[in-house]
Amino acid sequence: MAYDGLLNDIRTIIRLGKPSRVPVFACSEEFDVKWYGRGSYNEVILDPDKLAQCWIAAIEEFDYDWAWLQIDDCFEFEPLGVGCKGEGDILRATCEYLPVEAATLNKLKMPDPKKDGRMPILLEAIRKIRAHFGDRVLVTGRTAGPFSSVALLYGIQETMMLMLTEPQLLRDTCEFFVELQTAWGLAQFEAGAHALWLGDCNAMSNLVSLKQYTDFAFEPCKRLVDAYRKAGGLTFAHNSEIRLPYLEKQAEMKPDVLSMGPEADLAEVKKALGRKIALCGNIDQVKYLMSASAQEVADETVRVMEIGKPGGAYIFNTGDMVPRDVPEDNMCTMMRAARQHGGY
């Protein structure tokens, strides 16, 4: 259950030490809303009371050590005029992108997180969850890396082409999003978030070369990490990355915690980076939680934990979003096995 020493354990992990036990997380929001059963996903996320109540209930039921308020990728893009769709249990996603031209960028107005679109809903939910748990769970909000933000503004294909056709427009748009995502992150810290999940999955190795990542995505994202640290908050950097050279480059941003994708070789990453940066991950949420037996889930949980925890500097987590249809018994099995084998 949520415990008073959690934040001290997280700080110890960030300092590359051994906590009292390994914190156990899961990227579980879709699963949690279905389990909660009091409205569709899109109904729950439009009401800060329902949103907070669902997350509180799930934390108390499944014993997560955090509240992960990723929710969807649209909060800061809807006020910019990007089309976003989602219905029922299908998460909102950007779909109607803005024209790829300097005129678009010049017309953009910085949204106010306290007033515009659905941004205030997330801030209010953060306040309610923090008020309920205090420091006994890690309340974690969300922002997008500048490169991924450009892709959510213009579209992925168009953004990839910009690296070749109009690199300066890409850099200028990234600059806009450094400012926007800084303000959006600081608003979440002010509302009570301890940490931010900084997602930059459009800059992962499946989409860009390491040189492209270095030339276009790395520096703007590092500036966000620096801004969040200056504000006193924690940053979990997540590109769902699985390749070691990219993870090594990400680590140079010096986020507080580096999250790995589900197919990353945890042993390889731990050997290369485990004494340089705190790591988070990475049980495969589809291969195991969704598709395997409870015994297979337990065995894989123990395997991952026993690789990650030696020497400290490690947080157990799923590699990415847990599907809504994961069997409840599998989630309980993972959490129970992680708890039983997470002590030092």
Walkthrough of the structure:
The protein is α/β, with parallel strands linked by helices and 344 residues long. The protein has a single domain, classed as Alpha-Beta Barrel (TIM Barrel). The protein is built from 15 helices and 9 strands. It has helices at 6-14, 29-36, 41-44, 48-62, 102-107, 119-133, 146-154, 156-165, 167-191, 210-230, 244-251, 266-273, 285-290, 294-308, 328-340; strands at 66-68, 83-85, 93-96, 138-144, 195-199, 234-238, 257-259, 278-283, 314-318. The strands form 2 sheets. A 7-stranded parallel sheet has the order 1-4-5-6-7-8-9, sandwiched between helices. It has a two-stranded antiparallel ribbon with strand order 2-3. Helix 2 (29-36) crosses helix 4 and helix 11 (244-251) runs parallel beside helix 12. The chain is globular, with a radius of gyration of 19 Å. 49% of the residues are buried. The model has no long low-confidence stretch (mean pLDDT 97).
Q: Can you tag this structure with a few keywords?
A:
TIM Barrel, alpha/beta, 344 residues, 7-stranded parallel beta sheet, 50% helix
Structure summarized in a few sentences:
With 344 residues, the chain is of the alpha/beta class. Helices cover 50% and strands 12% of the residues. It has a single domain (6-340), classed as TIM Barrel (Alpha-Beta Barrel).
